[in-house]
Amino acid sequence: MNLPHTGIDIALERSLSSIFIDLETYGTLYQTVILVDREDRVTYAERYLDSNAVWQEQIIEF
Fold first, then answer.
1. Helix (DSSP H) and strand (DSSP E) numbers for the chain
2. For a Cys staple, 60 with which of 29, 39, 44, 48, CB 3.0–4.6 Å?
3. What predicted TM-score, i.e. pTM, was given to this entire model?
4. Please, what are the averages of pLDDT over each run of 10 residues along the chain (62 residues)?
5. Residue 50 lies in a domain
């Protein structure tokens, strides 16, 4: 993977460029998807890590 030169360690740069980041003091807590169909119906789906590090999911449609 070609990454831009940012001046930080290459291992940290690779970790930070991931779609899911899981570092000791920094990381992904939320993942969100918004879908709009041809009839303009919207689905908002969100996953998040709760305080016990368990993924929870919420889906809202309108």
1. 1, 3
2. 44
3. 0.61
4. 77 80 83 97 95 93 98
5. yes
Dihedral sign for Cα 24, 1, 31, 47, please: negative
- Helices of type H across 1-62: 10-16
Kindly state whether residue 2 falls inside one of the protein's structural domains: no
Task: Give the C-alpha separation, 36 to 24, whole Å.
Answer: 35
d(CA 44, CA 37): 12
- The C-alpha atoms of residue 47 and residue 14 are separated, in whole angstroms, by 23
Domain ranges, residue 30 = 10-61
Query: Residue 17 phi/psi, 5° resolution?
Result: -90, 0
The total number of structural domains in the chain stands at: 1
